[in-house]
Amino acid sequence: MKTVDKAFRVLDQFSAERREAGLSELSRLAGLDKAATRRLLVALSKHGFIEQSAETRKYRLGQGFLRLARIREATVPMAQAAQAVVDWLTDEVNETVHASVPAGLSMSTIAFRLPRRGNVINIVPSEAIPFHATAAGLAFLAFATAETQARVLAQKRDMTATQTLIARADIEAKLAETKTAGFARTRNSMEDGVASVAMPFFFDSEDPAGAISIALPDAKLSDARCGKLIPVLKDAVDRLESTLTGQVH
After folding, report:
1. Cα–Cα distances in angstroms (integers) from residue 80 to residues 67, 85, 86, 216, 244, in the given order
2. Which value, in Å, is the radius of gyration of the alpha carbons in the chain?
3. Structural domains of the chain, with CATH
4. In this structure, what DSSP letter does residue 47 have?
5. Residues 81-121 pLDDT 10s
6. pTM of this structure
7. Are the CB atoms for 129 and 136 separated by under 8 Å?
8. Closest residue by Cα to residue 171 from 102, 217, 209, 159
9. How distant, in Å, are the alpha carbons of 80, 152, 243 from that of 229?
10. Out of 94, 112, 136, 138, which could bridge 211 as a Cys pair, Cβ 3.0 to 4.6 Å?
11. CB 208 within 8 A of CB 142
12. Nearest C-alpha neighbor of 31 from the set 51, 12, 17
């Protein structure tokens, strides 16, 4: 199991900003020695999850993930269902909307859409969504099991904006507030100038399956505006859960 954990530590170093990396860089970022990193890369390459550029000799993610992603979506067509709901919600609120699901040490975007106007919050779909710094992550954690909360809160946390919660006690207080309210609300926590509201959605486990978020410029999220967004956000969650479960709320 430790080998699997180390392999994912290597894979987690790739991102939209770091699409390729050399052996030394991957070894340093993953906190592993070069010999161990090379063995992991060889094994991952064998199964198509890592490939080496013939031009740069650097490593990048391979095509093996595509087959598994297609199988996952065919088994549980969550991305397709989420995109339909995200499209509907974006039209309703005229703000940026995204749906995300837990993916190891962070959350990952599975659907998003920007409104058709200027001054909107942009979304980088490949960007990791920290649990502690985002409305989506806090909404997920607030309704997750105690075991999941403990696992996530044991992770190292980084300051990403001026209002990011770092201390465990502060995060736990925010989670309690979120669970009571039924939604998470953040301001300048992931990125300065950005505010968000989010609600979790459930499918077939005790933990939430993910969260739906509305992101907008910080100055626009007044209490009155938030009060208007929450009922529509709740409607979006109900729509997605109904699609996934086949049950009408």
Report:
1. 17, 9, 10, 24, 10
2. 19
3. 2-66 (1.10.10.10), 76-245 (3.30.450.40)
4. T
5. 999 999 999 999 999 999 999 987 899 999 999 998 877 89
6. 0.80
7. yes
8. 159
9. 23, 28, 21
10. 136
11. no
12. 12
